[in-house]
Amino acid sequence: MKITREIKTAILVLGGVALFIYGYSFLKGNAIFKDTKTIYAIYQEVEGLISGAKVTINGLSVGKISKIDFLPNTTKILVTMDVREELNFSNKSTAMLYETGLIGGKAIAIVPIFDTKSVVKDSDTLQTSVKPGLTELINRQIEPLQIKIESMLSSADSLFAGVSNVLDNDTQVNLKKTLENLSITTNNLNKASLAAVEILDTNQKQLNATFSNIKDTSDNLRSITDSISNAQLSHTIRSFTKSVEGLNKIVSTIESGRGTAGKLINDETLYQNLTDASRELESLLSDLKNHPKRYVHFSLFGKKEKPYAKEEN
User: Fold this and answer.
1) Per-domain boundaries in the chain
2) Of 48, 38, 39, 59, which Cα lies nearest the Cα of 128?
3) pTM above 0.70, yes or no
4) How far is CA 258 from CA 59, 84, 265, in A?
């Protein structure tokens, strides 16, 4: 049977259409000749996720996203995924949305839970989660810093406003004068330090001699201290202690009235006798002064002695 040109053309056109459909389906991530099962995941927001993005488990690609659309009558996003038929993870597993890189868009990673009682089937819906991307993490770190910077800028603005209110023309003039005086004081201090350095350089020999004398004096004091420490101070102290003890015994004996000194000091009879003797001696001297002839007799002719007659006061 002879194949006509029209049949060849038709076969070629059909083959091109089939090849186009296969290529389009491949680019869209839809498998035509491979068994897959369709599962779903629902997100609040999927910015950066596109159809054809890969679906992975532990980094291994196990399928692709075939469709992204709104969940009917809501603003939630329904993501349709075609994964390999032989996968037997549980329908309680989680579909985590994550960033593949700074410019790589987003993809979905299935965090599998293996449970033979609830193996995922076609048209099952998985739980979802969103992993913060690098940009979001940076924004989270920058946000507190931004708040602090804004607060610092506000404080600095208030400070500058306060300074501008305080630094009026008179204050600025006074501040300039203060700075000028401070500059003059600094120059004077520099001159004084230079003068001190010059004095030290000029009198360096005298200073060295003075420090040497101080050292010799310190050595002499140390020698004197050593001599004092080596002296028999303990023997002297013991002797002094014995002397004090003896003196205490003597004082105690005198106070108790024992011995001659004790009786002399404590016996009032001796004092009374001395008082009487003093009084009689005073009377005798007075009588001797007033009547000396009673005690001294001198007569050439043997004059008879008159008897003593006591005067009445």
Assistant:
1) 1-33, 36-131, 133-166, 169-213, 239-292
2) 39
3) no
4) 120, 132, 10
Beta pairing partners, 95: 110, 128
3-state secondary structure of 46: coil
What pLDDT score does 9 carry?
85
3-state secondary structure of 241: helix
Among the listed residues 187, 190, 209, 186, the one whose alpha carbon sits nearest the alpha carbon of residue 198:
190
Instruction: Give the gyration radius of the chain's Cα atoms.
Output: 65
d(CA 288, CA 148): 123
In angstroms, the Cα distances linking 93 to 35, 62, 73, 144, 186 are: 21, 15, 26, 35, 77
- 39 DSSP 8-state letter: E
Q: In the prediction, which pLDDT does 39 show?
A: 94
Strand partners for 61: 56
Count CB atoms within 10 A of the CB of residue 119.
13
Q: For residue 304, what pLDDT is reported?
A: 55
CB 127, CB 96: distance < 8 Å: no
Tell me how far CA of residue 245 lies from CA of 248, 255, 279, in angstroms. 5, 15, 41
Residue type, 262: G
Strands 94-99 and 125-130, how do they pair? Answer: parallel
- Which residue ranges of the chain lie beneath pLDDT 50? none
pLDDT at residue 17 in the model: 85
